[in-house]
Write the structure tokens for this entry.
Amino acid sequence: MLTINLHGQPEPEFSPFDWVTYRQTGRIQSITEGFTYIYFATEEGGILRYHTFQNQFDDPITQAQGLSSNNIRSLHFDRETGTLWVATKHSLDYSYTREGNWTSIPYGNLALPKNVHIRRIGSSPAYVWLDAGASYLKLDRVSGISLGVFTIPDEEKILWSSSRVLAGINIPEDIANYTVTEGWLLNGNQFLDPFGRTIDITSFYQTRFSDIWLGTGDGTLFLGDAQMETFYPFTFGLANSDITTFTKENDFWTAGRSGFTSGGITRFNPEELQFDLFDFEVTINMNDQSIYSSVDTGDEIWFGGEIGILVYKKKEKFWRLIDEAKGLPGGHIITMDHDTSHVWVGTSRGIARIHKDSKRSRLTGIEPFLHESFIYDIEVIEDQVWIGTSSQLYVYHQDQQALYDFRDMGDLSRISHQQDLLKNFWEIYEYKQWVYIASEKGLIAYDKKRGQWSMVFETAHYSGRKINAMAFSDEYCFLGTNFGFDRIDLNRFFQRNYSYPFLGRVNDLFISDDVLWLGTNKGLTKFQWTKDF
């Protein structure tokens, strides 16, 4: 009996691209050509799509559209039926729309070993074929039902899409001498990148219009123009997929935890879908480290990590490192915010104020009081610096040079029975006249106009989960947790939970009109949130 899984979008009411996830792509594994798109199978980033008539990349297809995995081994477009076939690590997926409504067939249901590697996929005028190395599987092109396993296909006219090549690709002589732009060089069956690194060519495909696509081991794609005899490089995707923080200006600067593959920081233009990668391995003054916080000061971008702060000067296009020698208290840089002249830095071991120009610590007098304190969040609000720690919520008045316990300011009558129970002040967020604070006991708020505290809701509204990030839009509150995020109507207290597998742990949130952006351990995701009502 054949068992299939219907993945589709997260919920039936969503359109295929109401959710979009951008990730690190990894190696290019396979290439195929559709009616309007060239499709690229990637090692980590799902399926990339290049629009052949508009000459630009569109949003990728990932688990957010219903794929069973973001690790795509091979893929093939069947022109007879318009179906896109995709081989992942554990299953064969296919979609008639080539966007959503994906069907997944585990390899075990196709009489194949569970750990089989599908080298390539092809189609004849009547069937779909899978090349599993030692055998070939013939499938019904509509249902995906297995019609037999062969040592050699019993048909001759099979059109195969490109496959990943491990031993190197023999580049045809007529393109071996093509020029490559942007500092790249083509050297036999490899490229040399602008930093002198050798990058293997892993996939080759020639389109019906005679364009040539080369995929590489680091995810870079090259489009060959036969008339100009030139290859043009394209980069689509992030420097890493575990996003802990991103800036919220026109360009998003994303960063996160450093993993086994080379990490870095990405400048991402969401309007143009342009990605500029700053690789830790080759960029001067960039140290390989996990990044936990970021702040855009206008002229510079600051990234707080596990060994210090990386500062990027926008005009000079230059990086530098601030470490403990400049006055940082040590520990991971968990949070940062800035005022007109300083960047306030919170770490797992205390707090510091760094002058923007000198890049050195300027003492305030509160440092000894917060020594060895775990600083969860810092929010600069007018002339005040709000500081959330594991044990207390403080407000530092810069004009008075005084540090206050939050219980010493404003009217506490509405939280009088809970004020002494509050701890672990995870997130602070200013929205309109309110300052919201997410704590272990619930979400509290301070009305700046009235000087009054209130309990918005208790922890039961988010099941006691740790709050990693907050965002607000009119009456709606969004709370990012280790298990997706919640949307809460602050007027009716109606709650909607989003805990889809492709979201994972939500570390950062940002609302731009109808789009909610999420930095997660599965990538950078955008969600058309106003459609879900």
Observations:
- Helices lie at 173-176.
- The two ends are 39 Å apart (CA to CA).
- The mean pLDDT is 93.
